[in-house]
Amino acid sequence: MSDYFDRVECQIVRNVEAGLPRSSRRPVAFGYMASAAAVVVVIVVAGVFLLARGSSTAPAPAAGHTVTVTFTASTIDPGAQLKAAIDRSIPIVRARLAPVFPAVRVFRAGNEIVVTTPNTNTGVRARILTLIGTTARLAFYDWEANVLTPNGKTVASQLQAQDPTAIAISQGVASGAPGSPGAGSMNLYDAVQLASRQPESSSPNNSRIGPQYYMFGAPGSAACQAEARAGNAVPAAGQHCLLSGPDDNEQGLLSGLPAGVSASEGEILTVPQGTAVLQAIAPNFSKPTPIGDPSAQFFVLKDDVALSGRDITNPQQSADPGTSAPDVTFGFSTKGKSQFQRVTANVAHRGDLVSGLGQTLNQHFAVALDDRLITVPYIDFKQYPDGVTGDNGADISGGLTTPSAQALANQLRLSALPVRLTATG
User: Fold this and answer.
1) Per-domain residue ranges of the chain
2) Which of 2, 124, 157, 397 has its CA 20 to 30 A from that of 56?
3) What pTM did the predictor assign?
């Protein structure tokens, strides 16, 4: 399975009330929109999760030598030609690296992308992996309209009937807010099983093209024991274990099996296009739970994205006026502003519809980075009956240094990579 490296912690503080100056922005309780003076959404982004396999802590060559990192490329879109996708990726990779490594060289070698740069500092390999090892898909969803309960129905369709599971997923539970572990979430095997039963649904609003593959081992099996040994862990009693995945093709899935485990020892589950399995909001963003950990929790959503990272404009490294801490600012495109207001208006109207008899059921939208939920904030339908605007854009702050803020702004400024990159050398 893929390892996650070099986590970059940051907060996206999204000001959604027009006219409020940056110096007046204050984060409120995690993931909620509740201030009377201003409505802000605090989005804690737990890292830039790298899909590159291997170790990011390998010692760098002596100063003055050249660092070379080789990536094997695979297509994200099964219908795309790999060579053409690699050719499109090279200028994106070069543009991501050049502000940090001006002498960098990026070129294609068969089905690989090779990066070379003079080594003038320690940690060069780790920086390269951080800058280019992620597809960085940012997606906004109407939460209740897309998240599914175990019966395969959306939460929104079951709220007026007061379905207990739908209410828990929509409103959260005593131990956690909507989108958090335990608030109607499932373990990975149950979530992938539910997702695999959904019909294929191809749409321009899908965040992923094509199916997604997982392989699981049966509880107590030799395969699960092998997987646990590979991770220096103990098999979870009575639970299926993740042997490999998620992957966009079966060949890649099989290549990720633990040593000594054969394909016949696992169960392959396929999530069709149009359905997304998203990990619950991390309780500790400095140490996110690995996807294969038995304690990891997940939600299944219809993959109908209301707003994406393509609708972000002009990301810039800046400094917070109140604290002088490094941050990144960006706005929404014209389409992004209208889409943001449209989705929040839909959320507000549904909240008004399903509330009554002294019960207020504010509804939510969700924000995800790649395959992880970041936040599920609510819209106060009484205060914002027609939704909120994105006129003031967003700040990204918290846990950033000036170099990491520059690198993050550079990533946001560039389009997502059309290939998945795996570090092989």
Assistant:
1) 1-148+298-425, 149-297
2) 397
3) 0.69
